[in-house]
Amino acid sequence: RLYQIPFEMPDCEGESETRTLHLVGDFSAPAEFFVTLGVFSFLYAMAALVLYLRFHSLYGENKKLPFADFCITVCFAFFWLVAAAAWGKGLTDVKAATRPASLIAAMGVCQGQEVVCNAGTTPAMGLANISVVR
User: Where would I find the MARVEL domain in this sequence (predicted)?
Assistant: First the structure.
């Protein structure tokens, strides 16, 4: 799937007109992977909690069950690390696609010889960075 992120830019030839440009790219896969893994982790934690509390004697008697639980937990921890790295990569891709210099380079109106375009301010990505770190 390709997503288009629209943004408005002025058309210098007509003062009141604006054109909509689209950034093309799919930045959702890493976030979807991270959220899916979080949902499965939550469901497994609820199932394990029921097993620990309701069927405690079965868990204590069977020696393979704690080892299987440990292996599943290790797998979830590994996939959580992979998902966090993928989310970080996805965020880096979004930052690169929405960097003001990249947007200005994509605007045809800024390609003229005597045209000077500047971006103003860089978008704040602090909360997005914190979401990856945490």
Answer: 1-134
C-beta neighbour count of 115 within 10 angstroms: 10
* Bridge partners, residue 5, by sequence: 23
Q: What ranges do the domains of the chain cover?
A: 27-110
Judge whether 86 and 33 are in contact, CB under 8 Å.
yes
Alpha-carbon span 41 to 75, nearest angstrom? 10
Q: The tokens of 110 are what?
A: 């800024």
β-strand partners of 6: 22
- Stated pTM of the model: 0.66
CA dihedral 40, 42, 43, 44 (to 10 degrees): 80
**Residue type present at position 48:** A
Give pLDDT tens digits for 3-61.
445 555 555 655 555 666 666 677 788 888 989 999 999 999 999 999 889 888 888 88
